[in-house]
Amino acid sequence: MEKLGENVWQITDHIYRIEVPLIGNPLRAINSYLIKGEGTELLIDTGFRRKSCREPLLKGLELLGSRREIRDVFCTHVHSDHSGLAREMAGENRRIYMHGLDLKLQREILNDVNKGKMRHRFLKEGFPRDLLFWIQDNNPARKGALDKVDSRFTAVSDGDVFQIGGLKLQVVYTPGHSPGCCMLWEKEQGIMFTGDTVLFDITPNITAFADVEDALSNYLDSLHAIRNYPVKLALPGHRETGDYQARIDALLRHHDKRLQEAKRIIAEQEGLCAYEITGQMTWKIRSRSWEDFPDTQRWYAVGECLSHLDHLLKMGEIERYEKDGIRRYRVR
Predict the structure, then answer these.
(1) What pLDDT sits at residue 189?
(2) Shortest CA distance to 132 belongs to which of 117, 113, 111, 147?
(3) pTM (two decimals)
(4) How far is CA 195 from the centre of its chain?
(5) How much is the pLDDT for 285?
(6) How many whole angstroms separate alpha carbon 291 and alpha carbon 289?
(7) Which of 99, 203, 262, 308 could cysteine-pair with 180, CB 3.0–4.6 Å?
(8) Which domain holds residue 314?
(9) Residue 148 falls within a domain, yes or no?
């Protein structure tokens, strides 16, 4: 990989990586990938819809001689750090690709339908009301999200193929991190654009979604399904690359450990709500206690805890019951 500029690297003859900073976000940066072909380009993921992402991305695209009028955008998933600038980066007469389930979720986010669904769920799980309302109204990720869905947005499905720059990119549907999370597979060169499905330096957040029964089960199934692809080079959405199969094995072990931890906490203290269980789980974050957790990170932590509780429920290992309007948990 050859460094071409401050935040730009050439990976192959037609694939380039632009590192887009995520100021104030623990993820630190997102990897945006540009694939250049004859008279056409494909940009994979974009960063938040804000100046601190827009300017470095545009600077990188300019360095590579990219032209907006021939540029399509592929969003590996709905999260705003991957899709926020999609409308600005795609040509006026080009396409913005996203899996149909995430496109549906994006519309619900814009219409505040999803906000209401998640507010109801989190309140039932014991999340403090005032804190929840503040987070939903002030989450930086929400402020950097897409402003609308226009006619350029095009739904993709598992197995769809893009041909560009001599590359044949196949959509690999990997639900879990989002309902419509996807990767792109280039079989001939053994290159996998993993989005946030497989990250190497950090663990993808697997959260509960309003209309998904068991997001963690979906994610674990995805990891098993993609493990044996003969990947020579994995290009992740954040940070650096690594050993593809070894990392998938490590992610599977991580979630098994998480499930056992949640079950142990419930067994030791029957009747806790999800917010209380989250506070007793182990988190790799610079915080002395659950009370000192950054407010927005509490939202993500509880969402991840809920995905593990949903999975334990589906597996029949715990029970959920309601007391005083709050859902509580016990082992079977």
Answers:
(1) 96
(2) 117
(3) 0.95
(4) 7
(5) 75
(6) 5
(7) 99
(8) 2-140+153-331
(9) no
In a domain, residue 28? The reply is yes
Can you give the CATH number for the domain in which 40 is found? 3.60.15.10
Classify strands 40-44 and 71-74 as parallel, antiparallel or unpaired: parallel
Question: Tokens 């499930």 label which residue?
Answer: 259
Domain count, the chain: 1
Determine, yes or no, domain membership for 65.
yes
For residue 206, what are the contacts with CB-CB under 8 A and spacing of at least 6?
176, 177, 215, 216, 219, 255, 304, 307
* pLDDT the model gives residue 24: 86
Asked if the structure places residue 177 within a domain, the reply is yes
CA dist 166 and 54 (Å) reads 28
List all residues 6 or more positions away from 87 whose beta carbon is below 8 Å from its beta carbon. 96, 146, 147, 148, 150, 152
Provide the sign of the torsion angle of the four alpha carbons 323, 305, 298, 57, taken in this order: negative
Distance from C-alpha of 89 to C-alpha of 73, rounded to nearest angstrom = 7
Q: What is the pLDDT of residue 140?
A: 78
